[in-house]
Write a structure and sequence with these properties.
Blueprint: E1 6-10, E2 30-34, H1 44-52, E3 59-63, H2 69-78, E4 81-84
């Protein structure tokens, strides 16, 4: 499992502690995470630090996770692809 390169965990019943297991995925290049608009269990405060721990991550899709304009700009600068659906 540590060789996993792509993971889609969108619309699962997750909270911030569930994301701790991502740290072991050192080869992960793509991650889709989030949920339906208005979900409150995953926030930029707890998701973005987890993303920063993934050295191989190049593409992210954050759906339903509210991020600020500044956070969105940082993500787009850091990753070759960053799809963000909830920017405030």
């Amino acid at each position: 499992m540590t060789q996993l390169r792509e993971l889609d965990i969108w619309a699962l019943d997750l909270d911030e502690h569930d994301l701790d297991c991502l740290e072991g995925l050192q080869h992960l290049e793509y991650l889709s995470v989030g949920g339906y608009d208005g979900q409150e269990r995953l926030t930029s405060k707890n998701v973005l630090p987890q993303l920063a721990k993934l050295p191989s991550l190049r593409r992210v899709w954050l759906d339903g996770i509210q991020v600020t304009e500044n956070e969105a700009a940082e993500l787009r600068a850091r990753y070759e692809y960053a799809q963000i659906t909830f920017v405030t």
